[in-house]
Amino acid sequence: MENNKNLATNSVEIVLSNFDDVVNLNAFVASRPEYAVLTYKTSRLAKLWELEIEDEKNQWIVGFNISGFGDIALEHSIEVKRRRHGYVDAELAERHFQELYVVRWKGNYIFVTLPNENAKEVTIAAPLVCRHRGIEMTDVYIWRNIIGYHILDCGSGTQVFETLSDMETWLYEIAEGKKLPWSEWYVVDGMVSNEYEVDVIKRAEVGEFAPAPHEVIELVRRLTE
User: Fold this and answer.
1) Within the chain, what is the greatest distance between any pair of CA atoms?
2) Which of 9, 60, 122, 146 is deepest in the core (most CB within 10 A)?
């Protein structure tokens, strides 16, 4: 993660490289909520920052967990609403009919600009793991860490399972007796720890088109256990 201060504009520019941060921002994009709230907080003494993204059911954390620090400053809190290429400031859209993006995906990156794209006090950029195919994002990534087994479905969001058996049960439920509707899906070789996103993704092995649930489990077991 790189955190730079632009002295000319007194703005903060952050490029995410940690795998967990990149996945969490991509998972928010994949979940596609209609509305969400972005909260950006800092600890000036520790020189750390945290971005929380919340909808009615989920929370995604990007950056550092600074909840225990005594000097937390709330820098931005913005409600956003979804548009085709990202999320705009909901209040500006409703009251002033201005659609200014706060979250937007362009090319191979997701950009978060706070408070909006015209007033970039803070810019956070992350690789777009969930690639577009037509109008949908369809890639699926599976990996294991100390918490358990994770699935990032770029069409819906993330799932976390404590055991491989739990994952298998879920896969059979969503398959409903058919093949899984996965065209591009990947399993990361080995355990994932506090790593760079690029180092994790390059270890991902592609699976066969439209797999049966047991085929997914077999590949996950072979690569992660």
Assistant:
1) 59
2) 60
